[in-house]
Amino acid sequence: MSPFSIHLQSCARGRVLPLAEAGMLSGGPAHRLGSRSTDGNNWRVGTLLTATEGHIRLKVVGRAWLAVPGRLHMANCPLLEALDDLPAGSHLFQPERRGWALGWITLSDRGASGERQDESGPLLAAALEKALPLIHSRGFLLSDEPRALRSLVTDLALTQGYDLIVTSGGTGLSPRDTTPEALAPLLERRLPGFEQLMLQKGLTHTPLAALSRAIAGTLGQSLVISLPGSRKAVAENIEAILPILGHALDKLRGDPSDCGR
Fold first, then answer.
1. Cys-Cys with 110: which of 95, 116, 118, 125 at CB 3.0–4.6 Å?
2. Backbone angles phi, psi at 11, to 5 degrees
3. Contact (Cβ atoms closer than 8 angstroms) between residue 18 and residue 63
4. Residue 23: its pLDDT value, please?
């Protein structure tokens, strides 16, 4: 990708602002594109923008539909996090993306209501951050509502561009355990091998693992995996799939190398 110009809004490290074309979003602070030739509409979460001169970096941490004053249609804008204190002014930036973006979702009625602290989500995030070259990681906490889960996973995969989306919770037999039913209609290709590996690993520890209905598959260029909700089961399931997880992500991105090597 070729360098392109951005006129920066002055802001401190850690602040997130949208990136918009000149003349858009006049009602609030935003970074401005100096040229319309950039392919920013294709930037996935985790894309790093580095100034060709000086130590100035930004990272794409999401996308949002924002109102444009005087126009009928909304604009879909990248959201850029400042990785350094940013001075106002125009600079040339080079985009690159090396590594994977992880979105982890915990399904828990009690967790979402604040009655219980989420332990399985941070555990799976820490395990994957240790094992994979992650460039971005973001957690979400939802109640066991299938519509909310479907909406979030669809957005993370098809709009935001997360590479790996992992859920924990909702895979058992309780009346509110609906994660497999929520995810199955979204998946374009199921991965029964992943599901079998996780089941086999769980059964080596307890026969109760047979009650798990965890599923895995792909949506767009994203790998979606559901895990049980307990800390122990999360650790076991991740351990089962780690040896093939990186290769699966490479192939999903289009790696042409021979799988047999």
1. 116
2. -160, 160
3. no
4. 60
End-to-end CA distance of the chain: 30
Predicted local distance difference test score (pLDDT) of residue 255: 79
pTM: 0.93
CA neighbours within 13 Å on the CB side: how many for 20? 22
What is the 3 state secondary structure string of the chain? CCCEEEEECCECCCCEEEEEECCCCCCCCCEEECCCCCCHHHCCCCCEEEECCCCCEEEEEEEEEECCCCCCCCEEEEEEEECCCECCEEEEEEEECCCEEEEEEEECHHHHCCCCCCCHHHHHHHHHHHHCCEEEEEEEEECCCHHHHHHHHHHHHHHHCCCEEEEECCCCCCCCCCHHHHHCCCCCEECHHHHHHHHHHHHCCCHHHHHCCCCEEEECCEEEEEECCCHHHHHHHHHHHHHHHHHHHHHHHCCCCCCCC
Alpha-carbon separation of residue 99 from 14, 40, 59, 249 (angstroms): 21, 18, 13, 10
Q: Which of the four CATH numbers 1.10.357.20, 3.40.50.720, 3.40.980.10, 3.40.50.300 does domain 100-253 have? A: 3.40.980.10
Beta strand 164-168 with 75-82 is unpaired
Residue 106's CB: how many other CB atoms inside 10 A?
A: 25
d(C-alpha 124, C-alpha 230), whole Å: 11
Inter-axis angle of helices 231-253 and 192-203, nearest 10: 160
Strand 216-219 vs strand 164-168: parallel, antiparallel, or unpaired? Answer: unpaired
